[in-house]
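Exercise (ungraded).
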Amino acid sequence: MIIDKLRNTIKKYGLISRLDKILIAVSGGPDSVALLYLLNGLKEEFKLNLHIAHLDHMLRPDSCKDAEFVKGLASRLKIPLTTIQIDVRELASRGSLEEVARNVRLDFLFKLAREIKADKIALGHNLDDQAETVLMRILRGTGLYGLSGILPKRNIDGYQIIRPLIEARRRDIEAFLRQKKVKPCLDPSNKEDIYFRNKIRNKLLPLLEKEYNKNIKEVLSNMAESAGYDYDYLSHIAGIAAKRLGPKIHLDKFLKLHPAVQRLVLRLHIARLKGNTRRIVFQHIREIEDLILNRPSGSVVDLPKGISVIKKKKKLSFYRSQN
Amino acid sequence: MIIDKLRNTIKKYGLISRLDKILIAVSGGPDSVALLYLLNGLKEEFKLNLHIAHLDHMLRPDSCKDAEFVKGLASRLKIPLTTIQIDVRELASRGSLEEVARNVRLDFLFKLAREIKADKIALGHNLDDQAETVLMRILRGTGLYGLSGILPKRNIDGYQIIRPLIEARRRDIEAFLRQKKVKPCLDPSNKEDIYFRNKIRNKLLPLLEKEYNKNIKEVLSNMAESAGYDYDYLSHIAGIAAKRLGPKIHLDKFLKLHPAVQRLVLRLHIARLKGNTRRIVFQHIREIEDLILNRPSGSVVDLPKGISVIKKKKKLSFYRSQN
């Protein structure tokens, strides 16, 4: 039963506490609608205070029907709703559509969460999304952080994001909705890298399930869980080390750290300037290591998004070279 | 150039020191023959003392031709050779052929290494083997340890195993041999899980290269390198924790450890009894965690290969329940 799965995930990661005020992002697609019903089912038990957020990103001609559908849900379940309409495509003249849509969505959620004083923001990602994400990252190249996939619980800019459905299969979510006789909208295209992801979802994962391991999705999800714990521990250690080393990294001290911790310290410095380490691949880290070990004082390595790193007199510093 | 790749790997992992006595396992296949030629080329520079080991496992009707071929190489390069003939199939009445072949081979190498007082045992695995191994483990389900793949340097029972070709592509190894005008024997079937591995080698990896990422093998190899460092660090921390907790694990203290370290401590205890953690999958660890958190005192969990674990009065102990 999906509700048991949900309870188990909530308990394992400590996702929900009594009296939490939770902002649920409801697109109208199956995942978020199921999440809404399920959290509504736990409302009494946890004394939850729920609030729905819906962003009409105007990407599909029928997207306002999604908004109508979500309004209907909110009034049926008697849960307050905030909607907003933003023409994402118009905004996306700069940058990729997916990235802009993602940022607009997070922005809206964070602002609303602050306004209504929500403790948590709940998103509807499921185990199938998790498997796709992890596989996508493996195919493109990744390390422990990427292998952690979609985290069940995460702090972004002081907001706690929770994903209670991250261990539930898409098919079980759909079965739950059928049984509830709820017909959700189409899954909206608010996921990044739609083309590559769809190829993995519709071609590669079915092939792997058929030919290599019928439990491939569970197996990838378990790997993500395990990598998530490992990353959490290592990044904690690296955070302490980075603080001790200071913003200008003393290379003599740095090189005494374990190589695993060294690499994470470099990533933390990049994330501090860039907000995240997306687009930072293995080769970048290797180039910084080459800078540290083999290049003369004064040498610079340029990284994506206008971040650079310079080695000077046995010290390494990261800085913004452009915007 | 493959020799630059080799030097780079040797330097990065500290595989070879001056005056090393190295036992090279030469099956007669491309990898081990290339390794022999390449190490022979570094002989003067590192003042190496080389010795060849060849095991005729009698698995193929023509396997004695491999032995003749290796004898020819040894006399041409003037490197001492020790060969042995063992009917692996006869021995394999108990257990799987691959596992028996693997154990016989390691046994022979370890005994010979001790006899001739070798510092290191060199094996010929390459980057393509690495990619296959990592992908195979991902498909079957694995954690950080499995993701580390084939380690470039490893201690087994006090013997140092080195794999100087682990970052070299199979095609570059073959090109090197063509250029040297050396015609190796067929790659012998001394690898585990031949059927599954061959399917991955001949079907899945070519598909992934063509449709998803042409550098998929390098990307998997980089991931293995990175996971290898992370695992090394975490297992070091877990080793210290396991020592402090003692053979009967005080659960109150255990539960104060970070979950990532907890899981590795459990694996270390299993490895201590079983020699390794092969066949221990995610579900086993999860079951032990359930034992710790939810089951009454006196409960037992049975693991593969006759290992059991019992919870008694807030203590956890692993023991051999059968042989």
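Further reading is listed at the end of the chapter. For now, observe: Chain A touches chain B at residues 138-144, 147, 199-200, 203-204, 208, 211-213, 215-216, 218-220, 222-223, 226-227, 229-230, 232-234, 236, 258-261, 263, 282 (CB under 8 Å). Residues 57 and 113 of chain A are 18 Å apart (CA to CA).
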